[in-house]
Amino acid sequence: MTTNRIRRSSVAAASVLLALAGPFAAPAAHADPATTTRPVAMTLPAPHGPHAVGTTGLHLVDASRKDPWQPGHSRELMVTLWYPARPGQSDAVAPQLPAGTAAAFAASLQQQFGLPTDTADWAGTETHSRTDAPAQATQAGLPVVLYSPGATGLRGQGTVLAEELASRGYLVVAIDHTYESLAVEFPDGRVALPDPAAASAPPSRLVDIRVADARFVLDRLTLLNAGGNPDADHRRLPTGLTGRLDLCHVGMIGHSLGGATAAQVMHDDARVEAAVDLDGGLDFGDQGPVGSVVADGLDRPFLLMNSAQWTHNDPWWQPFWANLRGMHRNIQLAQSAHLSYTDLQVQLPQIAAAGRVPEAAVQSQVGTIDPTASITTQRAYVDAFFDLTLRHRDDHLLDGPSSRFPQATFVK
User: Fold this and answer.
1) Whole-angstrom distance, CA of residue 374 vs CA of residue 305
2) Greatest CA separation found in the chain?
3) Which of 105, 186, 317, 320 is the most exposed, having the fewest neighbouring CB atoms within 10 Å of its CB?
4) CB 147 within 8 Å of CB 250
5) Each residue of 289-322: pLDDT tens digit?
6) Cβ–Cβ < 8 Å for 279, 341
7) Nearest-CA neighbor of 332 among 381, 390, 260, 282?
């Protein structure tokens, strides 16, 4: 696969796995034999907000909707919630990925690209969140931010941004889009793999389904906030969430196809006040636009963050961008690549440093930008955007370039 094909497939809503196909098609060159027998133990950067972070999973079933990929069944989703938690209330540190999902991820890398399953300890990667920790009692409600991953992507690969927002007082809800995501693990141990029809579906079809997923999740959050338990298995929820959600202030963020999804959800659902698109195209030429949002535009705040390859002036975004009427910004991250806007920004360099894959192959996916600078910059602008639009707190970071973040360019 050429570099151009990798880039095109990434923006055209291709999955993390498809994006990895090129560089990982061959074994790592010059790997140290001593390191190839031990999985790389990866770490994620800690959030910087003032609050501890709790997390829990919800199993949601939409009995009113048949699954588009499995018509004989109701639509079934798994979501993860991150929220400000009381410190020291739980000793259980949440993993980034459930065991079944991690195994499917490693097996797919091996099957498709020859990357051994023991390359990295995907199941052992710990987050900075405590499982089912009681929510922190604060006076103000928690603004809500939905997260949608890239096509076939995993909800857990947005953990770095989600934990940061939660540590700053948001409730973040990440959605796995079942039978499109690489693997969705349910509480009974089932692991739903992609349906072949989803792999060949046009982006507009995928976005339609994702929009319905997101709107259903918002409905279930309303039930949770009112004191109900939306979990299909009636598992006990963390204490302190009931009545704490500020559903009058909702935003959405997504990577790649998830970013396009965020735009269409905001178009279709007035509950969403602001959206962030992390390097996700909205118009695909022969395959058409992702939805009506491209022609109709938006009248509410929208932030587009691009990797170094693209800006809103490229065909993927230009028709949509011309129809934006609300506050909007386009920030390009220098020396970054498409997967810089996922947790792989910090994980792939760790694998390269251990000698398991060539550094050049990793750079083709997450760029040459320093991983710490990349994550720090992303967090700063996403925080500032949602603080401004959902909390009406303006730190003026979105006014223009800042010497604190030289990697960020405001694109005219």
Assistant:
1) 12
2) 57
3) 186
4) no
5) 999 999 999 999 999 999 999 999 999 999 999 9
6) yes
7) 381
Tell me how far apart the alpha carbons of residues 122 and 104 are, in angstroms, rounded to a whole number.
10
The contacts found for 25-33 with CB under 8 angstroms, 24 or more apart, are 25/1, 25/113, 25/114, 26/114, 27/114, 27/115, 28/355, 28/356, 28/357, 28/358, 28/361, 29/358, 30/355, 30/358, 31/355, 31/356, 31/357, 32/354, 32/355
Place of tokens 């141990």: 189
Residue with tokens 């507009």: 204
User: Is a pLDDT exceeding 90 seen at residue 374?
Assistant: yes
Over the range 29-68, which residues count as b (16 or more CB within 10 Å of their CB) and which as e? eebeeeebeebbebebbebebebbbbbbbbbbbbeeeebb
Q: What is the CATH number of the domain that holds 269?
A: 3.40.50.1820
Q: What 8-state DSSP symbol labels residue 411?
A: -
Boundaries of domain holding 185: 3-410
163 burial (CB, 10 Å; 0-12 / 13-18 / 19+) is buried
Q: Per-residue pLDDT for 185 more than 50? A: yes
Q: Residue 113 — very low, low, confident or very high, per pLDDT cuts 50/70/90?
A: low
Q: Rounded to whole angstroms, how far apart are CA atoms 41 and 350?
A: 8
Say what angle helices 371-391 and 344-353 make with each other, to 10 degrees.
Answer: 170
Beta strands 126-131; 245-255: pairing state: unpaired
Q: Which residue has the tokens 């010059």?
A: 30
Q: Residue for token digits 């390359």?
A: 119
Number of independent structural domains in the chain: 1
Task: Give yes or no for residue 340 having a pLDDT over 90.
Answer: yes
Tell me how far apart the alpha carbons of residues 130 and 125 are, in angstroms, rounded to a whole number: 14
Cα separation, 29 vs 363, in Å, equals 14
Count, residues in the chain = 412
Closest CA to 248 of 225, 216, 276, 217: 225
Structure tokens at 163: 């934990």
Helix (H, G, I), strand (E, B) or coil at 143: strand
